[in-house]
């Protein structure tokens, strides 16, 4: 292996280094996830959640906001008013429409 590395260019070595770093991070992430899953199983077996035992916060349940705006041209395209504006909102605003015009 060392002889193969000696034959590589600097660019190839750096690319190889990035691949190894990515693989190491993925490996560590998987080991951590496996450990947490195992701990959750043991806690559940004893009637607790992992968060109850560690004093940590429970994972947030994703709450979805109701849509507030709809594309006048295609009512299936909606937006909650949070986050980045969809392209159809940006285009409508450029054409002089107001957000109130697209309110549901």
Concise synopsis of the structure shown:
The protein has 104 residues and is mostly helical.
Topology diagram in text:
Elements: H1 2-6, H2 10-45, H3 50-54, E1 69-70, E2 78-79, H4 87-94
Describe it for me?
The chain is mainly α. The protein has helices at residues 2-6, 10-45, 50-54, 87-94, and strands spanning 69-70, 78-79. The longest helix is centred in the N-terminal third of the chain and has 36 residues, at 10-45.
One letter per element, helices H and strands E, the order comes to: HHHEEH
Strand content: under 5%
Low-confidence stretches: none
**Largest β sheet strand count, sense and barrel closure:** 2 strands, antiparallel
Straight-line distance between termini = 64 Å
| Shape, principal axes of CA atoms | flat
Q: Gyration radius, to the nearest Å?
A: 25 Å
- Classify the helix fraction into a percent range: 40-55%
User: What is the average per-residue confidence, as pLDDT, rounded to a whole number?
Assistant: 90
Structural class: mainly alpha
Query: What count of helical segments does DSSP give?
Result: 4
Query: Spatial order of the strands in the main sheet?
Result: 1-2
Q: Please report the total strand number as a whole number.
A: 2
């Amino acid at each position: 292996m060392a002889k193969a590395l000696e034959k590589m260019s600097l660019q190839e070595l750096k690319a190889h280094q990035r691949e190894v770093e990515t693989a190491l991070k993925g490996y560590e992430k998987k080991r951590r996830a496996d450990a947490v899953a195992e701990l959750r199983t043991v806690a559940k077996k004893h009637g607790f959640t992992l968060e109850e035992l560690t004093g940590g916060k429970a994972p947030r349940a994703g709450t979805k906001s109701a849509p507030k705006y709809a594309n006048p041209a295609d009512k299936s395209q909606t937006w909650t008013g949070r986050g980045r504006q969809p392209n159809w909102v940006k285009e409508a605003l450029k054409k002089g429409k107001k957000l109130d015009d697209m309110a549901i």
